[in-house]
Amino acid sequence: MITKVHMEALSPTMEEGQLVKWHKGEGDAVSSGDILAEIETDKATMELVARGDGVLRKVILAEGGTAPVGDVIAVIAAPDEDISSAVGDAGGGAPAEGPQTAATSTPARPAKSENAGEAQARPASRGAQTTAAPPASSTDGGRRKASPLARRLAEDLGVDLALVQGSGPGGRIVKRDIEAAKEAGVTAPAPVGWTPDESEYEDVPVSQLRKTIAKRLVESIGPVPHFFLTVDVDMGRAVAARGSINAMLGQSGEKVSINDILLKAVAAALRKHPECNAQWHGGHIRRFNAVHLGVAVAVEDGLITPVIKNAHLKGISQIAREVRELAGRAREKKLMPDEYTGSTFSVSNLGMFGIHEFTAIINPPEAAILAVGGAEDTPVVVDGEVTVRPRMRVTMSCDHRVIDGAQGSRFLATLKAMLEEPTAIVV
Amino acid sequence: MAGKASGERFDLIVVGSGPGGYVAAIRAAQLGMSVACVEADKLGGVCLNIGCIPTKALLTSAQLVNEMKEGERHGIMAKEVSFDLAPAQKRSRAVADQMNKGIAFLFKKNKVTHIQGFGRLMGEGKVEVEATDGTKTVHEASNIIVATGSRPRDLPVLTIDEDRIWSSTGALMQERAPDSLLIVGAGAIGMEFADVYASYGTRVTLVEALERILPLEDAEISKFMTRTYKKRGIEIHTSARFEKADIQADGVQVTFKDAKGEAHEVKVDYVLSAVGRVPNSEGLGLEAAGVKTDERGFIVVDGLMRTNVEGIYAIGDVAGHQLLAHKASHEGITCVEHIAGHGEGTVDYENVPNCTYCHPEVASVGLTEEQAKAKGFDIEVGKLPWVAIGRAVALGHADGFVKIIRDKKYSEILGAHIVGPSATELIAEFVVGRHLESTVEELEKAIHPHPTLSEGVSEGALAALGRPIHI
Asked: Quick one: A225-426 is in which CATH superfamily?
């Protein structure tokens, strides 16, 4: 009878194993239970045990080689049995052996269940005893697995279940996790030997808005792989353009700011680079045709990002009006939900605070955000001469799952060109 | 040292085959380890042979006896019925034997090697096993679990001889119920044997050093059981100080002081000493292996049952905490799974149920009312008398109550205490509820079948929420 020797899941989390040493060689007699080989898993070196009797007819995975769990790594059979069919089943990790191995169709793999793993695992040494399974995820299709008691505790203590890693079976959030989260989040230990006087600090309660900000930002910086691109923009012509636009608007009393021109330029540049006007959706990337621009607005106890819908269709003065109107109502906390959701790209400008340059945190599921510093007179070299120009530094934070460095750079080059020659915006 | 045969090598040697050791051995075998289990006596340890199981057989007989005494209300005209302890005792031995064989079968099935003899640690992964004929064999293992259990404690003024002064073992081996029996210690063991012997007609006196019987249970439970036992004619002395036992040809002359300091001198046929248990940690070679024990002789272990010596573990009674079979089994599983790298968490010592199989039964888990208050919880207590539950009344066992202690703030089930029919079975629902961190509301919302005793749980939950339907 032919017994295929599979790479077994020797630890609950093992996905592939490296063959350290074969204890049996081709032609050796083996019986069920014999140690065939030592396998290095993600945790420890474990012994792989024979599951059948006969002769080790074929070693497919050489020492030092790696194979995914489930792949056939050797064949045990009777001395004169035809094993070509079994050898043909060998998976990707196997060295080529006749034309059969070219077929990569996978044979039935042993289940990777905990049961399968434990029935076969045998600690190779005492050292294996301290390995513990990594924490499992607490989410199950969007639902947080949490005990009823943990839920009550979390609600009462203001602990966001979404931020808690469960330590119960299957990652279920239990009481001790909430208590630990509370401990970690609220009562950070004071420096030894020194307790701040109460007059030296003020405990500010966390508003619902602040909680949401915290949750959203942690969601972002955690799973979102950020990278940053910075470019300097000469704002001379944009400043001049602003002057002439405002002169034209003179009688109406309306005015546009450099930021409004920037927003228009961003919208126009995104139309040319839809790869940056995109969202990560796990299974797919959604690229938007329309540009809905989120504009970060500082409010009393945080920030909110009202959205200029279809910014690419709007003129600079209309963008200016909408920004002022939305920002005003944001400060009064009178925004409707549809006015601060649905953005495809965001801009955060801290120039008015004297900030020269900074990086912003992406607002998921968007793939990028532009952090804008103030336009400042800066000595620069133009045509071999040192001259003073209004320069502005912008930094784009990109979700690398969606945007690659070159794509982001091309978008920034377009944006820079548009701001340095504002007529390009309308071309 | 000549004549010491060298034995086999295993992944794991378990010393002791009680409910800690045999469970650990089987679990280890399931996980693919080569396992030996060393046992000096019978497989199954105290629990199976001279503890949990045979006493439950006797208590079942005792309950039938009591049912028969009230047989007329069921139309069983058995006025002249007589009771004999001998067949009941024989049956209890048969039950123990059957369970003992069951372990031998399980070992065979799981390929656990059973080594008969006294196991002794020699350090460096070696275990010497001394067979009854004195031959010694040294086996080796990467991992050793000490699961040698405990034995009855001897009071200096009350030396157990199993003749006139019994331990639980002696109490299990009697074929005749004596006229009088004095039991020292009113914990689970004392209470259970008081029940058995009183049922078979023995005049029983309970002498307890602490201020109430079942001193580890909720005070209301103790109070209820005191009343019940007194009604059955059992004499109870609490806060009593046992002073002297003078063994005579026809009995024992016992002296103890009661709560008021008044001396009592009574002549009884036998005395049962049930004053606790001590760990079996001597003569095991723990010193040779460098394993630390505490001042009471319990082996010191961490949450994964590891001793201070790498590769040596201890579980069950010899490792302290609650001296209970189910705790030992869980420690065994936790220990072995961690050795195999499959471990998840540690044993939750705050969720170990206590059961006393006297009649009515007593069971509890979690905090008593007193403990909950002392810990600063703002509590609400629900108490449901069994007379409110139709099934209990139909059964003819409506004495007792379910008491649930709830944390008002989060509705956590802090403690549950049951005295009454099938209390030891019903407590499991609270154990699961607590394990899953259910709140009292979940217990109430889950639909319990009607009519059953389990309604005592849901109705008890309602009582703890201040809105019982049936009281």
From this structure: Chloramphenicol acetyltransferase-like domain (3.30.559.10)
